[in-house]
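A quick aside before the break. I want you to see a complete sequence-to-structure record at least once, exactly as it would be stored in a machine-readable document. Don't worry about memorizing anything.
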Amino acid sequence: MRVKGLDNMFHTQREYERKANGDFEAHLIALCCSEPPKGFAKWSLRLFADKVVELKYAESISYETVRRVLKKRLKTLEGKRAGNPAKAR
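That is the input. The structure line, written in tokens, reads:
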């Protein structure tokens, strides 16, 4: 016999609001192509996160979310450049 309270304690489903939608991702990619702020030689994840909030593309965003979005886009670009190796077999 399962105790409902204990079962729910171990199998909770948390819901999160997704902050990085397609529009946000497009703005972030465009920002990557721009010059870094004065005083910086290149962009950092934290600078991207701060600039995205400053430009009001998001109310708040973590540098980790910025990293995930950029990593996802980089994988997409690499796949397009290399073609689809699964079809080559």
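Two observations worth writing down. The chain has four helices and no strands. The mean pLDDT is 81. We'll return to this after the break.
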